[in-house]
Specification:
Layout (H helix, E strand, L loop, with lengths): L10 E10 L2 E10 L2 E11 L4
Organism: Mycolicibacterium fortuitum (Mycobacterium fortuitum)
Protein name: MaoC-like protein
Length: 49
Amino acid sequence: MCRGYAYDTITFRGEVTAVDGELVTLKVVGSNSLGDHVIATSTLTMGAQ
């Protein structure tokens, strides 16, 4: 992972890695001019209310 600097743009991208019923798992990566700055996984619950 690289450092972040003031005024350097961080671009986030996401990808669905799994779907299990109402659960959707995402991989999220934030990159700047030096490379990947943050990598995370998030699980969302998608359902009607």
